[in-house]
Structure formats: C-alpha cells, structure tokens
Amino acid sequence: MKSLNEECGLFGVWGHPEASRITYFGLHSLQHRGQEGAGIVANDAGALHSHRGLGLLSTVFQDDQSLAQLSGQAAVGHVRYATAGGDGVNNVQPFLFRFYDGNLGMAHNGNLTNACSMRRKLEEAGAIFQSNSDTEVLMHLIRHSKQTTFLEKVKKSLQQIKGGFAYLLLNKTEMIAALDPNGFRPLAMGKMQNGAYVFASETCALDAVGAQFVRDVNPGEIVIVNDEGMRIETYTKQTQLAICSMEYIYFARPDSNIAGINVHTARKRMGRKLAKEYPIEADIVVGVPNSSLSAASGYAEESGLPYELGLVKNQYIQRTFIQPTQHLREQGVRMKLSAVRGVVKGRRVVMVDDSIVRGTTSRRIVKLLKAAGASEVHVAISSPPLKYPCFYGIDIQTRKELIAANHSLAEIRQIIGADSLHFLSEQGLIEAIGLQNNAPYSGLCLAYFNGDYPTPLYDYEKDYQKSLRTC
Amino acid sequence: MKSLNEECGLFGVWGHPEASRITYFGLHSLQHRGQEGAGIVANDAGALHSHRGLGLLSTVFQDDQSLAQLSGQAAVGHVRYATAGGDGVNNVQPFLFRFYDGNLGMAHNGNLTNACSMRRKLEEAGAIFQSNSDTEVLMHLIRHSKQTTFLEKVKKSLQQIKGGFAYLLLNKTEMIAALDPNGFRPLAMGKMQNGAYVFASETCALDAVGAQFVRDVNPGEIVIVNDEGMRIETYTKQTQLAICSMEYIYFARPDSNIAGINVHTARKRMGRKLAKEYPIEADIVVGVPNSSLSAASGYAEESGLPYELGLVKNQYIQRTFIQPTQHLREQGVRMKLSAVRGVVKGRRVVMVDDSIVRGTTSRRIVKLLKAAGASEVHVAISSPPLKYPCFYGIDIQTRKELIAANHSLAEIRQIIGADSLHFLSEQGLIEAIGLQNNAPYSGLCLAYFNGDYPTPLYDYEKDYQKSLRTC
Amino acid sequence: MKSLNEECGLFGVWGHPEASRITYFGLHSLQHRGQEGAGIVANDAGALHSHRGLGLLSTVFQDDQSLAQLSGQAAVGHVRYATAGGDGVNNVQPFLFRFYDGNLGMAHNGNLTNACSMRRKLEEAGAIFQSNSDTEVLMHLIRHSKQTTFLEKVKKSLQQIKGGFAYLLLNKTEMIAALDPNGFRPLAMGKMQNGAYVFASETCALDAVGAQFVRDVNPGEIVIVNDEGMRIETYTKQTQLAICSMEYIYFARPDSNIAGINVHTARKRMGRKLAKEYPIEADIVVGVPNSSLSAASGYAEESGLPYELGLVKNQYIQRTFIQPTQHLREQGVRMKLSAVRGVVKGRRVVMVDDSIVRGTTSRRIVKLLKAAGASEVHVAISSPPLKYPCFYGIDIQTRKELIAANHSLAEIRQIIGADSLHFLSEQGLIEAIGLQNNAPYSGLCLAYFNGDYPTPLYDYEKDYQKSLRTC
Amino acid sequence: MKSLNEECGLFGVWGHPEASRITYFGLHSLQHRGQEGAGIVANDAGALHSHRGLGLLSTVFQDDQSLAQLSGQAAVGHVRYATAGGDGVNNVQPFLFRFYDGNLGMAHNGNLTNACSMRRKLEEAGAIFQSNSDTEVLMHLIRHSKQTTFLEKVKKSLQQIKGGFAYLLLNKTEMIAALDPNGFRPLAMGKMQNGAYVFASETCALDAVGAQFVRDVNPGEIVIVNDEGMRIETYTKQTQLAICSMEYIYFARPDSNIAGINVHTARKRMGRKLAKEYPIEADIVVGVPNSSLSAASGYAEESGLPYELGLVKNQYIQRTFIQPTQHLREQGVRMKLSAVRGVVKGRRVVMVDDSIVRGTTSRRIVKLLKAAGASEVHVAISSPPLKYPCFYGIDIQTRKELIAANHSLAEIRQIIGADSLHFLSEQGLIEAIGLQNNAPYSGLCLAYFNGDYPTPLYDYEKDYQKSLRTC
C-alpha cells in the first residue's frame, strides 16, 4: 500500500445527454495528470456501466463504439498515474461497486495517509478488497457505516480517512464531490450551457468541454448534484487550505487556473522573481521544454536577455519502445531532447528548469548544451530545492532519491556540471504564486521544501522519521 | 500518379556495426516529415534485408527484435507522408528490389514531374511497376539502361527524371546519394566518430546520432560511399539552387540547419521582419503552437510586446481517434488547441502563424481567442500568401484549396474574423532567410507565392494552365 | 446472478518447479470446457501472483514471458465458459484475493443455487463483491467465519453453500480441493513423477501433463495438499453421488475417464444401445462431428451398417468473425459443416447426434444431407429428450428454449424434417454409462431428462415452478 | 527461388453482386491448403482493388468492413502455404499488377520448374520482380509478349512456363483460368444459381458457396469467362493427365471430388486394399486424426476389427505459441495428440496413417500408444513409401529428409518402434483411387514413390541428379 503514491485526474458530469463523451473530452485535457490507465463509469437512468483499461485514454477508448456503450446523462472518469507493475487493470479507476441495493462508481485523486491501518481493521472485520489502492477504503467505510442515510454514511466515512483526497462518487440518483480538509488537490466546478454540472481536477477540462467555471470545491466540502440541482455541504469544519505548490510549479497545465490564479502566469512570475533574485551575466535564456517555457520567458523578460529555442523536444517520443543502448548514448545518440547548435553555439546560456529531483536529467541537459557549443551554462530553477517526500499524492516517496536532501548547493552544481546554480527562494515562490491568504498561512503545501507537513503522517510517520536519521 | 505529392524524410549510414539501429534513431528525429509509413533496408555483408510498414516509426518497429533482424554495417531508411488511401504498404519505402545479380534498396524524397509519361513509356517496353509511387521510375530506367557500369546507369537515369528529388540507393557494395539539379529538397552529409558516413534530410538527424556535419549535398551531385571512403561526382552541370522556402517557414525542425542557416533563427528573423513591416498596437504576442513559436518570439522581441503562452496544444492528440461531433464542437468541446483564458482575457492579441492554406484553421483559432476573452485579434503571418501549388514534393496540389488564390486580403481577413491581417513580404522572407546567393537568384523556390517555377512542369503543365484559368 | 450458469475447467498442481507451465498445459487440454476466459494464480514461496484475461488460453498467454512471470511451485488455473456480455475480465477466474494476512487464489466449476440470497445477507453485513459471479460467496463466508483455523473456516463455509461445485483454493502454504455433496462436477486427482499432486476437472488433463491418476475426489470431500503431503477429509457426511450425465453424453473429452468409465467407450455403448432399441433400415451411419462420432461408430458396429464420413466440419471456423448473411445462406453458402455429396447421395442415412436442444441445428443438418442427395435421413439421438433446465453448472437455463419441453416426438420429427426420430431411453443411458452404484440410485444426475433434481433448488425454486406452469 | 515449393488454394467468381464475399467463403473451405497468407482481388466495374495479408483468412479479413471495400461482380482469391521466412506480405497472392492500360490480378497454385532461368532472362531484359515467387514470371512474359491480343499473349506465355500450375487471372473485362499440360493441381469449375461462374481448387469450395459442379478444367486448357459467358480453349495439345496422387492420399478435403472421385471414398478404399494386402492379427483399428480416419475405417470394415477412437487431437492447438520444453516433453507433457488409455490399454492396435515423411511423427505416436498401455502397435500406411521429392507444388524438397529414401522397411519399422510396418502397394493405390484412364498411363503422378517424373525437371534437374548419388 505504501508503495502507491500517485497523481491523477478526475472528471465528472451530471445532466448532459452525452455524459460519457463529455467525460472523454474532459479527461483528454487531463491526460498529463496520468498516462497509465483510464476509465469512465456512466449512469444510464440509474443503471451504472463501466469501461476502463491500461494505457492512454486513446488506447482504452479506441472508437466511438466504446463510448456508445456508456450511454446516460451522468458519468465520472479518471486518468491514472502509477509506478510500474501494480496489479494491472484491477487498480484502474473509477471503481464500479455492485450491490443488491444499487451500484456505485468511485474515483479518487490523492493519497490517504491512514489507508494501511484502516484496511487492516476492515479486513479483520471480514472486508475483502479488490484492489491494492488506498481509494477503496472509503467504500468499505461507507458500507460498514451505521448511519441511516447515504449522505451521512459518506460524511462519517470522510471524517475517518486522512491525507490528500479529491473524490467523485456516482450512484443511481446523484453525483458527489468531496475534498480533503487541506485541499491538497485541486477540484473545480463548472456549468455547461444546458445546465449540466461538471467537476474537474483542473479548469482546462472545463474549457475543453465548453463549461463555465463556477467555483473551486473548498477544503472539507462535499458537493451533491442531482436532478434537483446542486448543493454544497461540509463534513468537517477543521480545515486549513494547503494547495500543493507543485501543481503551480510543474504539474498543472499552463492554461488552468487554481484558486483563481493562472498557472502560466504564476510560472512566468516565478521566472521573473528568479531573475530578480539572481541576475546572471549571459547571452540567452533557454527553457527546458515543455514545463519550463513559461518560467524561462519570464526570466528573459525581466533580465532583458533574448528568449531562445535552445532545446527541442521530439514530439513523437510517446509509445516509442526502442531506446538507445548505453553504448550508443555514449556515441551521442539521443531521442528525446536536442540542443539547437545553431542557437547555443558560443553563447552563455541561462537554462531555466522547474525543479531538480535526482539531478540526472539536469546533468544530461547541461552536457547536451555544452556539447552543442554553449560556452557557459547557468542553471536557474524556478522553485526551491526538493528535500522531503510527499505523502498527499505526488510520486516523490523517499529522501534517498532527492539530490537536494543529500547534497549542498555547491555539490549539486558540480554534479550537474553547471557554471552556476540558483534556486528560487521559498518566499519568492509564495509571492510569485500570489495566493491571497491569511498570514501566517501561505495557503500552500511547501512540505517538499521545508518538511512542514500540514497534517500528521499516520501510517507513514515511522518510516519518515527513520529516513530523517539516515539521509 | 499525379495524386501523389509528398514530403518525406531520408536517412542512410555506411560503416557502422549497428547501422539499422542508427538509422532508426535518425528517422526518429525526422518523424515530423512523414507519419504514414516507415521502413529500413539494411546491408549485411552484401545481403539486403528490409522491414517496413504503415504508421509511425514506433508502430513499424515495435521492439528491439524488429531491428535485430536488420543486422549489417549499412542501412537506408525512410519516413513517408502521403494522402490517405493509396495502396497500403506497397508504397512504403525504402523499396527493396531483388535481382539475380544482387539486390538494391531505394528511398526518395520529393516528387518527379515527368513520372507519369516515363512510366507509360517503360510499361510499353514491358516494365511492371510494383507501386503507384513515382519513385520507382528511376529503378526501371537504371535496369533498362545500356550503360556499362552501375554508376553510369544511375547517372544516365538521373538525367532523364525531372522535378524534385533526393535519392538514397543501397546495393551490395555501396551507398549512393543524389540530389536534383535545383536542390529543392535538403540533404545533408555527416560523419560519425568511427568514420561512418551518414546522409539525412535534415541536420537534426545528424545531431540525433552524434554525427558531425560535413556538408550539404549540392544540386546535380551524386555521392558514392563504400568501404574505400566517400567521393563526390556530378551527373549534370545544369544546376540552379532553389531550396524549398517552406522548409524554412514551417516544415523543417527548428534545430536543423539548411544551407548553413538555422531554421529557428530564420523563423525568428521572419517574425522580426514582420514586426518591422507591420507594427501593431496590441498588448501581447501569441504564437500558434508549435511551428510558429519562433516567429512569434521574434515578433515580440522586435515589437517590445510581451510574448505569452496564449494557446496550448494538447500533447496527447496523436493516435486519438474519437473526435467531437459537430454538435459538441458547437457547444465548445475541443481537443487539440486551447486558448489560455487567464492570459488573453481583455487583451489585444497579435496572433502569429506561419502560413494560411485554406483559412479554416486560422478562423478557428481567432474564434477560440475571442471566446476566451481577447478584445482584439490581429493575425500576422510570417510568410507571403500561398497562391500556387507545389509540384516538387509538398502536398499543396490545387489552386482551388488555397484561400489566397481565390480571395483578396480584405476578404481573407473577414473570413477568418481577424481585426487585422498581415503577411510577410516576399522580399522580407528572402532577407529573413538570408541565403547568400548570386543575384538575381534568391537560391529559394518561392513558386507557391509567385508562380515562378524554376523548371518546366512536364506532366503537370496542362492541368496547371487550366487551373490558372478557373481559379 | 441467476443469469450466470456455467461450465468450466479447473486445474491445480502443488510441488512442481514449473507449476504455472504445467497448469497451462493442463488447462490447454480442458479448453473445450470453456473458451471465454482463462487465468492462472501461482504461489512463489508464499507470494501469490495472477494473470488472467478474456478469450482462449492462447490469447491470454501469448508467449513464454507471460508464464515466466508466474514462477513458483504451486498454481491453480481456470478456463471459463460464460454467456456473452458479463462484466469483462472481472469475472474471469481464478480470483486472487489480497489480505494483510496473506493472499488467496480461488477457482470454481459449477453453480451455486443459494448464491443470490447469501450475497444479499453478506452485503447487508458490509461485504463488497468484486464480481457478479456466485463463486465469490465462499470467500466472503470464509472471511466472516468465526472458526479458529483456516481449514475449519473453509469447512463451515462449504456447509453453507448449495448446488454444484468443485473448488480449488490456493494460499501461502497449501492447496485445497473440495467437491459438493452430490459430486455433480467431476474432479480427479493425480500424481506426477516428481511427487507433485495434481487436480483436474478431467483425467485427460492428467494425461496431458504426464501425471498418474490417483483417484476421483468424492462428494463431500476436502483434500489438502502441502509440503508435508496430501490428506483427505470430509466437511459433510450427507452425500449422494449424482454425476452430471451430460458430461458422459457430450461435454467431456472422449479420452477422459469419469468415475472410472472412459467417455468414448460410454458413448460407443450409447450408440450400440440405441441401435438395439431402434434398428433402422438404412444404407449408412453418419455421426455429427465431433462429439457424436463415438456414438455413431457404436451404432454402425451394432447395426452392421457401414460407418461413413457423411459430414465434414471445417476446422478453421474458430475466431472467424465474418458470417454469411441470411441472403447468402439461402443461396447455399455455408462455413461450418458440409455434407459429403459423394458419400450420401442416393443413400438412406442414419444421422447420429448426442442431443437436441432447440432443434435448429438438427433441422439444418437434415436439410444439408438432403440437399446433398440423401434419399432418407433418420435421426438417432444417443440420449433421452432434454426437458428440464440445469442449475448445477450447465448453460441450459429455461424450459422455454428446450424443444422437447414444448413438443411431442412427432412434432419434433416434423420440425427437423427427419424421416424418423429416435431418442435413447433413460434406462438405456444408465446402462450404457454403466456406473456401478447402489440401487435405487443411478449415481447420475438425470434431471434434464426427468426433472428429478437431487437437491432443493433454493433461489431458483420460484422461477422454476413458474416455468413448469407456462411451458 | 528453388526454396519456394508450395501447395495453395485458388478461388474465383465472375458475375455475382457479392463476389468478394463469395470468394471469402470459398477460400474459407480451402484454408487447409494454405495457412500462411490470404488475399482477394475484386473487379468493380473494371476497377481492381486488392486486400491481402499474412496468416489465416480470418486474420487477414477481420470484419465485414474489409470485404465491403472489395465491391464488384468478380473476384479471385488465394490461400497460401509457404515455408517460414520469405519476404512477408510481398509474396502473398493474388498479385495485383497496375498498368497505364489497366490492372490485372493473378493467383497461382503449383510450382514452375523453369522459373529460375526464365526470371534471369527476363531480368537481363530489364524486368523488375516484386516478389521472390515463381508465379510472377507469367506476368512478365505476358507483358513482353509480341502477340497482338491479350489472350494470345497469355497462351504464348503459358507455353513457355513448365511444371505444375493452375492460374486464375482477372482483368477489367474477364476472368481466365488455366491448367498445366499434366493437370498436376486440381481445378474445378462450377455455376451458381444466378449464372455466375466459379473456379476452385477443390469441389468442397463449390459446395460451400452453393455452386453446382460443371466440370474439371483439363490439362492444357484455358477457360475464359466474361459478361458474354464462358468458353474453353486450349493453349497446347501436348497434354498427359498426371493428377498429384497426394491430393487423394492426404491433401484434399474428404468431401471434395477430384476427377469425379470422392476423396473420402478413395481413402476408405485405400484402407480396404491395405487390409487385404496385409491382414493383421489385432484387437482394434485406430486412425491418426484427422487425415487418416477414412482409411482407418476402411481397414476396420475390411478386416472386421472394431474401429476405435484411440487417439484424440486437441482442437485448440491452432495459434498456440507456447510449447512444452524438451524437459517437460520427457515428463510426458503433450499438447497436440493424446492416446485414449481407456481404449488402447492391453489391446493389440493397428494404427493407420496416410504416409511417413521423416518418421518422427510415427515414432512419437507409436510411443504414445504404448505408453497408454497398447500391447502391440502395428503401423499400416495407406500409401507407398515416399522416396522422391516433388517439384510440382508439394513441399517435399529433398531426398535427405525422406526416411524411406534412406532406410529399408525393416530399419524404418525399428526406428519408429512398431511391432510391424506395412505400406500400400503402388498398384493397390492406383486401384483404390480408381481413376479411369487409358493404360499404360494411370492418370496419376506417382513420382514421390517411383521417381518417374512426367516432365523434364529443368532448373531442378542438376540438384536432383546430385541427390540421387548422395542419398
């Protein structure tokens, strides 16, 4: 269980005659949040049907036929990122649970921190899990709940799970959205021309289906949509906003807004801040495609240096299984990224990237630029050093793999072969994102940078404490 | 035959122990030149083997096994763009011809203008063609040639074919590269660390395999590589450089150099020229991804306006077969391109694109930007209006489909819904590319803009004259 | 739930270094028992892994790689027959259940008659089912059981389920086989050269893997195999042998022995009995391929008539998706079965078949023989008329679809267009099979013929009673 | 070229609105003649279209869509058997040749004996072959022919090719069938209800599409079918019937008639003859499935011994890629064939098979029967010993691989482990087939048995003579 630590994308719609098709297009714009699996559960006049599979959305849904089978006016969908292996299609969401008293679809983005202990308790009471995902815990809690109404069962169960979660539930008569007390994962609500309500992990999915943004779902909220309309309730009052700052830094699509802030614009401001904090004498600014192009153009504008296409990403790399051997790599064979010789040759380059995890990618790119003739390569990172793991849904699991948890700035610079290395300050990041929140709280989760987790770590606490002693 | 009018990518290597694998990685960086088919012919100590198929390179070569079967020290490869239909895998190159006196592989980029009449003559003499591609004509000419040596046969045959062509031939003992007398299509030569010679349609493929650029193959040249080394000969002296200007404008990869000029840099200069020719009062500059980003950043720098990410392209659009219905498109459902509401809302936008063919795409993007709140959209095109078809290898076949051949500038502006519309001047384009050539020749083919074809049109002449009268 | 009524094949092995491979070959010889899905769960030193999928075994396991991942010394496998639709791979067995205290694999052949009511009770207690198969009920009963040892939990749970079942269970330390109190479904035990124990639905699977037959598992028995060896216990004393007679008639492979009786030999005796009960004046005897060839040769030998190949089955019919339209069928286009004109023309034919369900197949074959020139066609069926549904695992679900439940012998003869029609008598069938059992019990389930069900029908009782009144 | 030595199936129809569909069903019943590739060329009002691919017909044509694209009133189809490797889909027939003056489809069953030398001559004259099949030679001859009409070109070309061939040609206005001067390969003509003419390698394909048998195409004949009707001409008078006797022995389907003789009936007579020539003291007669079941039942009837199902063939062996390792085979693991222990145990078995090629299969089956308890195994072969290769279209290429070319009867018996071994005499075979022909000619090709080839061997002569000296 502890090995599952994932980022995902959610989409749901209630009240559209082509609900599963709308969900398909919504998920399509969220594909960057998960490429390992996809699925849709549709509600056709109370009957729930499901289709899911491994791989990209376009692999799982190969033709109109696959969607045509999912008729009905409501649907929830999911795209999934997961580390290799796992148990195949069993863990692909949304889950569709079948009961004598009605079926239920469930999709989840985030990571529960007490899933392991809850699962053990439930199994001791006779529960049988069908996946090894943490997601399913909520369903067992609901079914074991002694509350009288379904909504009360759900609320009571949400109070028992901990960590980061955005949930979409679909049953015979309603769709329910719920967000954890810290709002780690984004979840936006929109409305279509015909009045249908839509939920999506990012607002780019609302745009993709032509829906108007209504509002973000807030921490501790539970939103119920049915044929009568939409209403918002809360299952807990103990909330404290802590949006995952990595969403702004590299995860979300640049055209999405999170908490009212456009992601591209925030990134551009990170680049500007970085240029102010660390002005560098150089000839050109180059961004690492694709996620760092916004920050790089911000850096260029603030610094007055020209913004150049010094690195090109091969757009056909997807689904390419043949890779260069080590031997060929040493001879200069490469597939993914190319340095533009005609641009960087003889130039002093500021290379802007969004983050450094292991350092291997940065080292490779610096080497690439130098091999193409760059006279100097200055690495400017538009976020602070990553030093601590995430337990709320991003796949950074141990301190061991984080270069900044184990090396000084000078060491990292040397390892990646840069002429200089700079990270955006934590304060700079907070200001660049510009979330209006009540001090002293930034409204952001910055735990990867400072170890300041907004919640207890529950099942992860022990291993985490141990890792602090060894790394 | 006349319906085949294609752009393609070539790669060849002689003298590397992993020749087919090197060719795979070379072709991978040329995939943008053709996505409909791919293939490799390898020479294993004189025995030629082939593998080819429909679709992307990664579809045709799914695993290392498929390459392992193509052992040997030399190989030629091809990626193919073709209009839908055709005759399936039969037309996918390289062709492998089998003869009692030795096999021969052949790959071609370009389009012959006298293929139809030559084929008829050859068939009347008993020839049987195995494809409906123009490429094969050369092989039949060679086999029917009365010359004594193979090289003389090839030279004589090259003199008989007309139009645009870059050819790679591979036989038991040598690899031969040849370029048409106008050099319409680019063809570069490189050398690997171990001394192996490499040919590629673009220099980005040399970079991809770690090869050093040696020189471009020139018009009328034939280059022979064998175990003794490389030598350059000519099959005609009547040459006149006329590089396809569309290669610079939108076709080639930005990291390639053609005739010594970096493509990204040329595009940026086109953007700068455009800003000088047409300064526009606006708030931001937005490029249409991906081919127009360089020109847009040039425009931004010259104009002093901020360069913004106002349009986002979905990177998962490849191989997605489910498309929004007309009905859903009207509701705002879209997959490929999104306007970034948070960036363009309330702004006056300069939208930079590389060209306008039918005008439908431009209209769609203008509409997208306005729907996202842009207050004005000014369309700036970094090339002159396309008015004439290409007969040398680009898929623009009739005047009928070209909006600029049938409408005035004012009409086009209105059709696409722009607040203003500007095209780069022909002279501006020539200067932006900056090819050093003997006046009065620009060294470029600009026929799509001015109808000034560098060669007679042969089999196409009659239909072309007719089209001038009707459009 | 009630819609699932299936025939399947089981195989298990404990103690062989290539357990999953052995299971693959065992299942391969049981493929005739189920073509809709297949799977294997293997135990690798206590860790259980699973692979399963839709379609034939050769589709689910496409290469050695797929088996190599299932390493370990023990495995259970399953092939599944199911009516179209269902819920895809979720219902494919063996199921692999994961618990904090160890995983468990489970495979089942048969049909439970109280699954529906048991499931409702379990769900009311909080249980969540992952399939809509009846199989899973046993697992939930085990997990909810208050017994102290695993074996006691299993025994107690087996006492609660009703109907026809052969179960194979695999956990960390042992494999368990269990048979229902009537032994409706066959289950044989064997031993390999190296001492490994093997279980299989039919003895042909023991032969296929080179195992020696040890004994059949008996009604009410539970057999435990672990590293210490094998031991046999019982979970109930209230047993009464009632082997499904359809196994002998058409379901089992002719090279299998059930309860010590060879299936081919039993079928040949059915043919002989039939010839004795109904001698027919004719020229040749023809069997309907493939299941009726044994009975036909028995009829031929007893009657003294020559046994001829009058009908040929196309052996490439598998996985052929294109079928003749009604229009083409009327023109005589056919794919599956051909009458041999050169054999039947002008002859009086005794056509031997094993059973008549709807009568449509018989009518088609009679027509085929007459179209090929047969002067008379006498249909001889080597079993009594099918009049009642099966609730223990064969897919005959309602009386409505059974021609003999709704028509007299004379009517059926007329419907199928035969010159005469004869069924083997119930007593003839019992004698032909020749099971040595204590009178008055035949040791066989003959309920499809006489409605004499060996057990109460539980959840099916109500619908069954209703069907007796309407058909 | 010499490596291609193949058996194939042909089908063609002229004058049916669903010609390609009819061809599909015709080919489906000829699938036993070739499983490596399949294709159809259809004529739609003069326009020829083609679809072909590797694998079974059901793989190449996966859905109705693939046939719907081949509309038109005429079609020719082909199924191909070929030794592994080859050049993939290039060699799959029918070939579709495209010419400025009209396209042409061509399909061939048989093997040319002068293809190699003819191809060399044609290539020296400039011809380019697109396959490495011998088939294509005819097309080049036709195109190089100086005759004035197409029919004369075809006739002249047919006179130049040697060996065994049945050809179907389809052009804009007609379908042409042609047979070699010895009629090695069968080719039957039929007529559908609507008047459409049909050609097929075997009459079972006529039955499959509801066509009436008209007559066999005779040696040296060329049959032309067009919208005016059908007419028969000859291209040579020097003919001598020599039907491949292996068609009767094992190749053709039992429901086919060749030269008016039913194949099953001929095989049954071979079994009877064998029983007369070699009466054996035994308990039961067992045929090797599937091809020897007719001969075995003939043997049983003549000898008075019971005919038993002593060997069972797994009907799911097709497309199964996982095979038992040598190690597992030694442990008794097997997939394809099982001996029925309950039938053969303690019995003296006459095992009837149609032929012995290498002897390995026979040895394996004898071993299987003995392992299952047979007390004696007497092998009776319903044809004479195979001692010489075939050059007319069957894949027996060298004497080296033929056990009877290298060992005495006593040695073979010992090698295969039989208690006795008997072959049908050549005279017995001739009488069993019972072709009415003018003595001294049998009308059969018996060269595999006696080395008496009905024609010169041309390109094969040299190697053949050499093989006589070494084997």
List keywords for this structure.
homotetramer, 471 residues, alpha+beta, Glutamine Phosphoribosylpyrophosphate, subunit 1, domain 1, Rossmann fold, 2 domains, 6-stranded antiparallel β-sheet, 18 helices, disordered N terminus
Q: Could you name the CATH homologous superfamily of the largest domain in chain A?
A: Aminohydrolase, N-terminal nucleophile (Ntn) domain
Provide the β-strand percentage band of chain A: 15-25%
Cα end-to-end separation of chain A: 23 Å
Looking at CATH, which topology of the largest domain in chain A would you report? Glutamine Phosphoribosylpyrophosphate, subunit 1, domain 1
Q: Write out the strand line-up for the largest beta sheet of chain A, numbering strands in chain order.
A: 3-2-4-1-10-9-11
Question: What class do helices, strands and sheet pairing of chain A give?
Answer: alpha+beta
Tell the overall outline of chain A: globular
What is the average of the pLDDT values of chain A?
A: 93
Task: State the CATH architecture of the largest domain in chain A.
Answer: 4-Layer Sandwich
Chain oligomer state: homotetramer
State the CATH class of the largest domain in chain A: Alpha Beta
Q: Biggest interface between protein chains, with counts per chain?
A: A-B, 68 and 69 residues
Number of domains of chain A: 2
Major sheet of chain A: 7 strands, antiparallel
Uncertain ranges of chain A: 1-5
Q: What is the helix tally of chain A?
A: 18
Measured as a percent range, the helix fraction of chain A is 25-40%
Radius of gyration of chain A: 23 Å
Q: How many β strands of chain A by DSSP?
A: 23
